[in-house]
Amino acid sequence: MSDSKASTPTPAGDTYKGWVFKWTNYIKGYQRRWFVLSNGLLSYYRTQAEMGHTCRGTINLATATITVDDACNFVISNGGAQTYHLKASCEVERQRWITALELAKAKAAHLQQESDDSGDDFSPSSHPALPGQGGGSQNSEVQSALRTLGSKVEDLSTCNDLISKHGSALQRSLSELDSLRLTGEAGDKIRQVTERATLFRITSNAMINACRDFLALAQAHSKRWQKALQAEREQRVRLEETLETLAKQHNHLERAFRGAAQANATTDIKIFDAMEEAPEFITVPADPHFHKRSSSTASGFNSEMCGDDQSLNEEPLTMSQEPSQELLPLKKRRTRIPDKPNYSLNLWSIMKNCIGKELSKIPMPVNFNEPISMLQRLSEDLEYYELLDKGAKCHSSLEQMCYVAAFSVSSYSTTVHRTGKPFNPLLGETYELDRRREYGYRSLCEQVSHHPPAAAHHAISDRGWTLRQEITVASKFRGKYLSIMPLGTIHAVFEKSNNHYTWKKVTTTVHNIIVGKLWIDQSGEIDVVNHTTGDRCHLKFAPYSYFSRDVARKVTGVVMDKDGKAHYVLSGTWDEKMEFSRVMQSSRGGENGAEGKQKTVYQTLKAREIWRRNPLPDGAETMYYFTSLALTLNEMEDGVAPTDSRRRPDQRLMEDGRWDEANSEKQRLEEKQRSARREREREAVSQRTASQSDEGEPIDEDLLNDTSLKYAAHDNYKALWFERCDDPINGEPVHIYKGGYWEAKERSSWEGCPDIF
Question: Fewest Cβ atoms nearer than 10 Å: which of 10, 422, 447, 530?
Fold first, then answer.
């Protein structure tokens, strides 16, 4: 037998467990077994390790009888085939088990009777939910708390019955001893014990009565609590509705006031505001016959006329009248992809361990992706290619600048609802977008670096323009939001005028990472520069603010020549449309701005629309909010390179809705890429050691651990279709298309392509 300390049963909440000896047969006799008493069921196992998989027997105490044989033995039977003859290691242990068993039996019997007699008392239909959010759940919690209190009081009542039962037995025993007429000190002790037993029973009865009073009081006040909770919820809803109404009224009154001021003023003023910052400039409508006046009578402004403007009417930007033949699409492209599966996954559970890290270094499941790669997302910049087509026809470089600036803004319109993360391209992955027969252009992207991730893009159009860029994405997770900073310069070159434009991208921020609905904002400033003429357009993307009086996602800009004279004003939003206004006159006549500086006032003609976002296709909300172009990006086409993103298996599986398989395939591709990187590192080591051997130098044994070789392996990687060089415009190291891809496609000659999939 084990010692008493090892076999003492231990309570754990509502569970009681410990070692007890159980009668098995006449050969083995009593054998030690591990017994567990929980939820009115007594189960036993050969060892504690069996609790997870093998139960040797169970008795429901609600219908069982418990009898005591002697000091250590007791019997539990359900009146049928199950009877346990048990033996404790000592009398104290037996009494602990008997007490626990009787308490559990009483509780199980009470719950069974309650279930039979009033099983529907606490059904959802019998307790209507409180109005307001979470009303039903709160009411259910109150009822559950009351039931728990009642259950605990019943436990105490059962304990009281047991105390009374054992107390009565104790008093009988003491009375029998007293009847022996013991004298002296023994008799006094017996009387003292009897008195204490009586006081103990009286105290326990008082405790039970106090608990019953507490339960009755809780039940009496429960309705009052529910009414108070309901009133608080209704008041909160009314306050929220009132606040929303006041905000709408404030906005309406403000707009009405500004409209009245504009109607009564001799000169209409429109302020281009940038969030909480001071307005940078003001525009006022020019007199339609302003060009007939002399500059000395023009509203008292110390003005400068735009000398190169030949006409001051409200016609749209002038374009050459060369005939252009519109090419009809030769291929009907798809308009739908499989709907996005409704798989739930907590973004915060993954992102909470990634605060401060680069997004490209965070292992993410495809559940947070969209079924296109970053190369395809980069190709979406050509969604509004017609802006460059129109720009190529412009006679004036300043007019052309308006179209280039609008094109730089239009690339963000596809991001407004796109909270999914594109697939990180594998090193050497490519993507072609050939729309030459349909729209006159074709483009090629290639992943030219992995750490840091960098993609090179080259697009050329038969309508007289070329677009190229190399984008490296730097990203940081800040806990509440994710900042994505595209690094690199975008170039647009027009063949006829030889105008060469450059600009960079603004910062993209993904909000509500922790809680709430994800939403995207674009903020920052862009300088579009014409390196041929010196013209410049400064665009400002205003960050979203709840307290701003302006429209959300606002963009403003001014087109100036090399001398800093304004010719056009641009305004609009990056997710909807952009407008332009021709500047007729400018002056320093506005109210003081930030730091006491005067704002510039521009007199302009009526604003005209230069770009508007295309509507999303039907059902876009179930297709990752893809645009019509994005729906076709991953459509399989014949003749593309074996490294094309359309052939990427994990991306294809995700598009088909097979996300578990896509996650497995994604891990396989990433491990294959890591193996290829390690192979390049080994080749770098071999080249270094071979060089040392040829020169007669001793080979350094620590060369294998030289981290510089890892960087050398990345530096030695050469892209297939792009060549690394210094940009002739800004001197930045970039990859520029060296040619050969489309010729290789015509020959179906892909021998030089790496095996990455």
Answer: 10
